[in-house]
């Protein structure tokens, strides 16, 4: 999990989408935070509302790959994208079928890092979970 801290000065060209199972996302072409420009990012639409609240203020974004999975606002509140553990179950069930299990693990490695690594850390930091 990567942390980027600075004044959130721009949220550029955000578009919303809904996938086949009803999860909603916001996709950004670019975000300017501090002296960094982040490109081609996505987040849960519910988390996006809190990211927008930090515009013009000092925030910390938590990232895995090209996903924003959490935001800590200037008031100290931390909000994070809570993912379902179904991905973990799929990988465990398909592990006996090594080829399929390995393919799932490789394709879903960011999901696994999010669910098994970052999500418990953000919860332990007192984060408020939000569904996608």
Indicate the percent of residues in helices. 25-40%
Amino- and carboxy-terminal Cα gap: 19 Å
Q: How much beta, percentage-wise?
A: 35-45%
- Which structural category fits the helices and strands? alpha+beta
**Helix count from the secondary structure assignment:** 4
Could you give a short account of the major beta sheet? 7 strands, mixed
Number of beta-strand segments: 7
Rough shape? globular
Order of helices and strands: EEEHEEEHHHE
- Biggest sheet, spatial arrangement of strands: 3-2-1-4-5-6-7
Low-pLDDT stretches are none
| Rg value | 15 Å
Mean pLDDT: 82
Write up what this structure looks like.
It contains four helices and seven strands. With 132 residues, it is α+β, with helices and mostly antiparallel strands. The chain has helices at 45-53, 86-94, 98-107, 109-124; strands at 2-18, 24-33, 36-44, 58-64, 67-72, 78-81, 128-130. The two termini are 19 Å apart. α2 runs antiparallel to α3. It has a seven-stranded mixed sheet with strand order 3-2-1-4-5-6-7.
């Amino acid at each position: 999990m990567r942390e980027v801290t600075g004044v959130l000065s721009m949220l550029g060209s955000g578009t919303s989408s809904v996938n086949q199972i009803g999860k909603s996302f916001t996709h950004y072409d670019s975000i300017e935070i501090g002296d960094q420009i982040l490109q081609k990012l996505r987040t849960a639409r519910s988390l996006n509302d809190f990211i927008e609240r930090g515009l013009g203020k000092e925030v910390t974004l938590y990232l895995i790959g090209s996903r924003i999975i959490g935001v800590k606002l200037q008031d100290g509140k931390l909000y994070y994208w809570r993912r379902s553990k179904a991905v973990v179950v799929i990988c465990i069930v398909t592990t006996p079928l090594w080829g399929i299990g390995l393919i799932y693990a490789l394709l879903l490695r960011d999901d696994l890092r999010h669910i098994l690594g970052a999500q418990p850390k953000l919860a332990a930091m007192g984060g408020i979970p939000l569904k996608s």
